[in-house]
């Protein structure tokens, strides 16, 4: 059932967060669905303000761990792994929450206190499966042709759109890094939406209004909005 799918990867059966299914798919790409496996519980003493987790989600209520910072508190807790779905925090079920909501809950946990996580790890399978051969008779027959790409959305149909320009791609990458710094999340689609909102704006005030109209649910702090505006400006001026 779709509710059992945690995330999908392209061309690898491993829980490789650099191979997550994204906005572009080629005709020869192979999709692996990673489904829910074993449940596990862990109690942790929060000894640092920063846990060292980067959280993302699959768009349908399954927030999972995309990255664990080396040397961080969570890195020392070996039971927690990349790909794990965070199901509950201190008994509160967070299934159905977006990744930024889960990240905020973890960030708001009081330092010096114990907290409990219930996690679901991806089912382990195909451990001996080798990467798919690159063979085929259509090496250039990709959906992405020229400056167009197939863009997938959680809501609404897939559409073929113009690919971001080189300047926009640099801005999107920088904004994605800012999202991780400020919110502990990585979301390239969210970063692209923010860059799009600021593309024709003349000052940070106009940009803040545009963000509030399109992404008001995030309640971004002013400092973050200003840094994003700066990143977009740096990209336009060729400083990135």
Automatic annotation (TrEMBL):
Positions of the PDZ domain: 41-108
UniProt cross-references to CDD domains, sorted A to Z: GH2_GIPC, PDZ_GIPC
Coiled-coil segments: none
Family annotation (Pfam families): GIPC1_GH1, GIPC1_GH2, PDZ
Family designation: Belongs to the GIPC family.
Protein's recorded name: PDZ domain-containing protein GIPC1
Lineage of the organism: Eukaryota, Metazoa, Chordata, Craniata, Vertebrata
